[in-house]
Write a structure and sequence with these properties.
13 strands, 2 domains, alpha+beta, 4-stranded antiparallel β-sheet, Glutaredoxin, 251 residues
Length: 251
């Protein structure tokens, strides 16, 4: 892998392509940038480069990672673009939309579910078996459920493959009752497990990287908003209420 490719992938560490935007054939400068970027970085296709709110710059996006390239294809910039007049972080809006689309594509059987009798809100939480605040959050699971919040866990062993957390995550995934096994693991208690296809742990780990995780726990709201770190039940409820309720469902 070339040095240029390594530098670019340090900025765009993702694996799943975002949806293709309409190609702007009427914009010769954009097509020129797309061609140049594809020559330099073959994994960056024309669908990943589109117009930006600022003249002279184009947006480079794959999943929740956003960068900008100058219209001559010379300069690549990663950082937040802020609309000062409207006080909007345009880059974060793009990342949020991308996370929402990514997470909405995850199948139901890829989550470890903790579901209340009446579901008022749903969140996806990337959790590590051993991290202190992941355990603190899970110790209050009954409070989240009492508030009508469905917790959809995905396993994210932050120390990577072959770590203790990774191995325990595989055991949890292969347990007959994953919810009970996860609770036991976070309490350092033994639980029964079986042999199974453990590729889901790698998939969930890579998905966590794609949505821009910097640590655990990481909470993803249904609109794609990412909150890094622990939120007490009452704070999480307050944040979710600001987004508005979902259509309540029952078990």
């Amino acid at each position: 892998m070339s040095r240029a490719m390594k530098i670019f992938y340090s900025l765009l560490a993702i694996t799943v392509m975002s949806g293709m935007s309409a190609l702007a054939a009427e914009d010769p400068a954009l097509e020129k940038v797309r061609t140049k970027m594809n020559v330099m970085f073959q994994e960056i296709g024309p669908e990943h480069i589109n117009t930006s709110p600022v003249d002279g710059w184009y947006t480079v996006q794959k999943d929740s990672v956003v960068a900008y390239v100058s219209e001559d294809g010379r300069y690549l910039l990663q950082g937040d673009m802020i609309d000062l007049d409207n006080q909007i972080n345009l880059s974060e809006v793009t990342r949020t939309d991308s996370r929402r689309d990514l997470m909405s594509s995850v199948k139901e059987d890829q989550f470890i579910l903790f579901t209340p009798e009446v579901v008022k809100h749903r969140v996806i939480i990337f959790t590590d078996i051993d991290c202190t605040y992941c355990r603190k959050l899970h110790s209050q699971i009954d409070e989240y459920l009492a508030a009508g919040i469905e917790i959809r866990y995905m396993l994210y062993p932050r120390n990577g493959p072959a770590s203790r957390s990774w191995n325990t995550s595989e055991d949890v995934w292969c347990a007959r009752d994953r919810s009970a096994a996860l609770t036991a693991a976070k309490l350092d208690r033994s639980f029964d497990t079986n042999k199974c296809d453990m590729s889901a742990i790698s998939e969930q780990y890579m998905l966590g990287q794609s949505v821009g995780l910097t640590g655990t726990p990481a909470i993803v709201f249904e609109n794609g908003t990412l909150v890094s770190g622990y939120l007490p039940p009452e704070v999480l409820v307050s944040r979710l209420q600001m987004l508005g309720p979902i259509a309540a469902t029952t078990k």
